[in-house]
Amino acid sequence: MEMREVMAPDQRQARRTAKREIVRQVESGATVSQARRGCPISLHRTTVYRLLKRVEHEGEHAFVERRYGHPIKLRGKCSPSC
Description:
It is a single chain. This protein has 82 residues and is mainly alpha-helical. The chain has a domain at 9-63. It has three helices and no strands. 4% of the residues are buried.
């Protein structure tokens, strides 16, 4: 089983700051490619476009890291309301 590395709070803050900077540059007229080149973290082009769309729909909440992977499976009995 592969273990994922857990990010420290300062790493999360650095990613949020870098994402905000990319969005700011694109909103100022830079292309996505130009904004990515100046970014200290590596973000795939598609990820940047998804981020821009989320910012448009969610505002500041778009910069919060989201959980990835499969949802947790329920184990044991489920309540009758299921």
